[in-house]
Amino acid sequence: MSRVCVFVLGLFLCLQVQAAALLATVDRTRLNAGETLELTLQTQDVTQFGKPDLSPLDASFEVRGTRQVNSLNSLDDQAGGTRWIITLLPRQSGSVEVPALQIGDLRSEPISLQVLVEAANNENHGPVFIDASLDQPEVYVQAQAVLTLSIYHSVPLYDDSSLSPLQLADAKVEPLGESRTFEKDIDGVRHGVIEMRYAIYPQHSGDLKIPALTFSATAAQTDAEQELNAPRAGKQVHVSSSALVLTVNPIPSDYPANAPWLPTSNLSLEEHWSPDPAQQQTQIGDSLTRTVIVQAEGLSSAQLPPLPATEVVGLRRYPDQPQLRNQVNDRGLLGIREEREALVPTHAGSLELPAQEVFWWNTREDHLEHSSLPARSLQIQDNPALSADKPASTDPLSTSGYPLWPWQLSTFILALTTLLGFALWWRARSQPAVLRAAQTGPSPRTLLDDLKRACQANDPQATRQALDAWARQQPETLAEMAARFVPLSDALDGLNGALYSETGQYWQGDELWRAIGTIPAAEQIQPAASDNGSLPPLYPK
To answer: What is the Rg, in whole angstroms, of the alpha carbon atoms belonging to the chain?
Structure first.
């Protein structure tokens, strides 16, 4: 009970420390000179009612705006508390640090930024223009190229803006998160910027043409235009980016032919054990969970191949489904593949796990590299609990273990049923294949006399019943007999007309009886068997 109280107290203290922390994040860590970024300060301490001290920012940044967002904790939203969103404009280029900020007793951690200097551009742009750029002019096939589209506008725009989709037949396109908005000063004019990024993976070598994209929007009326009653208020704006060409190189010839092609700027392998066999004794039957994580910059998780399976004698392997996920950062996609497996040793002694190695092509330094996990030796101890369950004698005929009489009984029953089945089969061989069925109804002669009396009485109903009874003992149906003997067919038509019309009382049965009696002898039904009861031969000579 005391241990449970200590655990609950420790968990409560950890939650209190987490709630009392001041977390600082930025929307990007790499930006161009003249661009703004958003700094977010967040705390879950609901007792903080003040504002953060922003004076440490004045040395390196211009504070363009600050807004505060309050939210409540809920089951679906764990990130409650208070947030301050601060828009900053760096005053200098190069490496710039967002200093630690403080509110009450809470203090954030500093954040490092990289502010890039753009080349001078004297081109005179309009109030709305779009710029497209690639992070590199050439890449290897299936490697990542980041396309950045920046839409600049010095006039306000309505919310009806749209951008034509990026469609490439010979490449896969992955959007890199949602669009970002910030501000940038160009020649002393403040522009709003809408930035969208795409990861492009060419599937064939050669030149990949990236078409021009068109941005459409409606420009809102400014205060100056309202005073001058300018007629351009609500004008539709259409601007297009310039088309780009990306050079795609083939797979290098010195890349291993039997290795999956992995063009990336960095690839890492991580291994985790639960429990760690190096810190805890492992016995036969214990379960060890091994997790291997592969991370590759510039590749999606779908491009990461599965790792070689752990096949070791004396070790049973139970793998889980691999977990694939992608993370977006300033350099594009970060593909992550996580493979987890349960390993259960079945033998005592030393089990050697082989090293795992992954080859990849370093696109930053343009050469072959490999990442590996070292081989590991597992020391497995004997399990006394499992040893106690083993029988003392290893003689398979010994009765000290499981009793043998169930197996003997099942074998005896199987043999008995086999002999019984053989005897029934031998008895069936002496019986005829088809037995003559004993006649239980009227004889054919009796049925024929009944049919004659009904025909002579000119009674269509009685004639039909007698005719059906007589036909049931014939090997052919009435339809088959009528088809090969025309007088019988005509007589049956007359009988059917009498049965289903009002002229039945005038029907005469002589025609039908004559047709029955004059069926040609060649058409008469032959007996199904000879008088001695034997069947006709299957293959008559």
So the answer is: 47
Model confidence at 32, pLDDT cuts 50, 70, 90, reads: confident
Q: How far apart are CA 243 and CA 164, in angstroms?
A: 13
Q: Would you say 298 and 363 are in contact if contact means Cβ atoms under 8 Å apart? A: yes
DSSP state of 301: G
3-state secondary structure 422-442: HHHHHHHHCCCCCCCCCCCCC
CA dihedral for 406, 411, 412, 414, sign (positive or negative): positive
**Helix (H) / strand (E) containing 380:** strand 376-381
> Residue 45 phi/psi, 5° resolution?
-80, 105
**How does pLDDT run across 350-396, given as a tens digit for each residue?**
988 999 999 999 999 999 999 999 998 888 888 887 655 444 444 44
Q: Which two tokens stand for residue 189?
A: 């004019």
- Band of residue 520 on the pLDDT scale cut at 50, 70, 90: low
List beta partners, residue 337.
Answer: 294, 324
Token pair recorded at residue 293: 């994580």
Return the pLDDT at 80: 62
With contact defined as beta carbons under 8 Å apart, do 139 and 204 qualify? Answer: no
Please, which residues bridge with residue 61 across strands? 90
Q: Would the pLDDT of 108 be above 70?
A: yes
> Residue 334 pairs with which residues in a beta bridge?
297, 327
Burial class (CB in 10 A: 0-12, 13-18, 19+), 139: buried
SS3 call for 127? coil
CA 3, CA 5: separation in Å to the nearest integer? 5
Global pTM value: 0.59
Contact indicator for 456, 509 with CB cutoff of 8 Å:
yes
